[in-house]
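Sample entry (71 residues):
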Amino acid sequence: MRPKRYIVWSKNEIDLEDPWQRKWFIQQVLSHGRSEDVAQLDWEEISKVLKEISLSQEVRNLWEDYFNAKR
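Predicted structure, serialized as tokens:
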């Protein structure tokens, strides 16, 4: 996959089949993506990996609040 430059600026290609790269890409999209980029992610997958990825406290709080409200 060829990522958008405002999301990933350090790589030209990402292998979304690789679990580590996939988590890293989700982290990048949640931190730097636009609403249309976030909308393309798998919401269940975000919920599953949220505790494993590195996010700013503000971004983490937003997503934890979102998923807690959905429960």
